[in-house]
Design goal:
By secondary structure, this protein is of the alpha/beta class. Helix content is 51%, strand content 9%.
Length: 550
């Protein structure tokens, strides 16, 4: 069969949530809620356009949480076992009074344009609940039980994927009913939730088995690999940046541990050893590339800004401006995303009419592929957070993009593995890899400020305690991995919403305390005090946890 003459476009969707469970109890609901919306919708969009191809990257810690949530939903239905996730538990039985404030505060999280103002009944309840929370505990206690039940059900409804809300008879019936939901309604919704959560892994496995999707992974608990290996790597892009006084002890072994444990889970869940890795936050360095190669990966994906920093002289760049390069001396291939076009999906097109956004993106892809003489164009970005800012959770944009690319006369969709298999010829080489991430090609989002460095100091102290333990238990091994995740260093000293900064500060310290307890040691007093953060609500990004790459 002759080769397809159309120019390839490879899209990677990255799915990640950090470990929210502290000693088994979820502190925040985002793995659960994204399971109902983003992970469900993104599978549905691919299923709706079978000709589409994509790379779907999962962090293993997210998969672990989704699997447990699915098990808990099934156990709640079959045996009445109370789930540990408070929102799910509130579908099984009304929440105890002690949980009301926490539960209702969670139910107010939602993007206003696409949640509160889209659903009149939810907005009415949100106003009532907000007034009660502002008035204090007595007002919350006096809220009618029916209002709380209705609020919990509507919060689930606004978090359902658009593919579910438009087609599932149970979701449609609940939205038509509007208010005064009964026990039968709660059970119906819990059944729907169980079906959605239980279907996530099998659906992506089927997409992978069919060849429509290439499944790839990040290191298990999503650590920043270059920083685990060597803090000094941050100075490659930012000379002179302040760093913690001590290096991270045994970081190279810890980085390899996260890679190996992730591969083990992928084999258990999907029956594959992924060929590729999206390193956490696209953060790479020459040292970590060697680790990826030693772990058996054939490709990694990162950012155009990292590629440019690795080839600072224009004369050294390949004349075709290839975004696929082989590392010199290492049998490992790097795919470098187009930062501008990826950011357009994450931050710009949310305010456009879907058909205009699709047309603009496809036109850019067509022009770029022509300039590159038909070489592959790479898009890579968060596959879960952007959609709440899009109309209808982005269903018309994503499906429209898939349809436009699969019917285009000059473009076609592919995966990274397929592209390598179809193009075994020699690739341009990078002599070395500059340390950086998708954020400005630097690592300063996770190190370098006083509050971030203080967070690392706390982790270093905990790691020394871990190393002093002769035979750390499996729970201590896991707790150590959790504390090394990137998310705890993302928030301090950055222009993020103040409430979220405080939540993740508390969660990081709770995980460190859990690690000490797993090691049989009393947590240090320092963990009872919040880190010092530079951000304020006034400075917060309107896009929550998301930031553009440049």
């Amino acid at each position: 069969m002759p080769a397809d003459p159309r120019a390839p476009v490879a899209i990677l969707w990255h799915m990640h949530q950090p470990e929210y469970r502290v000693e088994g109890i979820p502190a925040l609901p985002w793995a659960y809620l994204h399971g109902l919306r983003a992970y469900t919708d993104m599978a549905s969009h691919l299923e709706a356009v079978p000709e589409a191809r994509a790379v779907v990257n999962f962090s293993p810690v997210l998969l672990d949480q989704l699997l447990e949530l699915a098990q808990q939903a099934q156990a709640a239905l079959a045996h009445g076992t109370p789930p540990s996730e408070p929102l799910m538990a509130a579908l099984l039985a009304p929440p105890p009074r002690a949980m009301r404030v926490h539960l209702l505060e969670i139910c107010l999280h939602g993007h206003q344009r696409n949640a509160k103002y889209r659903y009149e009944e939810y907005y009415r309840l949100a106003v009532e609940v907000s007034a009660a929370l502002d008035a204090g505990e007595a007002a919350v206690s006096s809220l009618p039980e029916q209002s709380i039940t209705d609020m919990v059900i509507w919060y689930h409804l606004i978090w359902l994927g658009e593919s579910v809300r438009r087609t599932d008879s149970r979701a449609i019936a609940l939205m038509v009913h509007r208010r005064n939901f009964s026990t039968e309604h709660r059970v119906s919704l819990l059944t729907l939730v169980a079906d959605l959560l239980s279907g996530i892994v099998p659906r992506y496995r089927a997409l992978g088995d069919s060849g429509q999707v290439e499944l790839s992974m990040s290191p298990y608990f999503h650590p920043i690999l270059p920083l685990l290996v060597d803090f000094e790597s941050a100075r490659e892009a930012a000379p002179g940046v302040p760093l913690p006084a001590s290096s991270y002890p045994g970081g190279r072994d810890r980085a390899l541990w996260h890679l190996r444990k992730g591969q083990e889970l992928f084999w258990e869940v999907f029956g594959i050893r992924p060929r590729g890795c999206w390193p956490s936050e696209a953060a790479v360095s020459q040292d970590t590339a060697a680790l990826l190669q030693s772990a058996g990966f054939t490709w990694f994906a990162s950012s155009q800004s990292v590629q440019r920093a690795s080839t600072p002289k224009a004369a050294d760049r390949d004349a075709t401006d290839s975004c696929v390069c082989r590392l010199q001396g290492i049998p490992l291939v790097g795919f470098f995303r187009d930062d501008g076009l990826s950011d357009n999906i994450g931050f710009t097109y949310k305010d456009w009419e879907p058909q205009h956004a699709v047309a603009d993106l496809v036109d850019h892809l067509d022009s770029l592929s022509k300039r590159r003489n038909g070489q592959v164009v790479v898009l890579a970005l968060d596959g879960e957070n952007p959609w709440e800012y899009y109309a209808d959770n982005g269903i018309d944009f994503v499906r429209g993009l898939y349809l436009a690319l699969t019917t285009h006369p000059r473009l076609r969709m592919t995966t990274f593995a397929n592209h390598l298999d179809e193009n075994p010829a020699a690739l341009p080489e990078l002599p070395s890899l500059s340390a950086g991430s998708w954020v400005y090609g630097q690592l300063l989002t996770w190190i370098g400020s006083s509050s971030k460095n203080h967070a690392w100091d706390l982790l270093i102290e905990a790691k020394r305690c871990f190393d002093a333990s002769t035979h750390p238990s499996p729970s201590a091994q896991r707790a150590m991995g959790v504390c090394e995740g990137s998310d705890w260093f993302w928030w301090p000293g950055m222009p993020h919403p103040g409430a979220a900064v405080a939540e993740f500060d508390h969660l990081f310290r709770a995980h460190l305390k859990a690690l000490y307890r797993a090691l049989g040691t009393e947590p240090p007093e320092a963990l009872n005090h919040p880190l010092q953060f530079a951000a304020s609500n006034a400075e917060a990004s309107p896009l929550g946890a998301m930031l553009p790459s440049c």
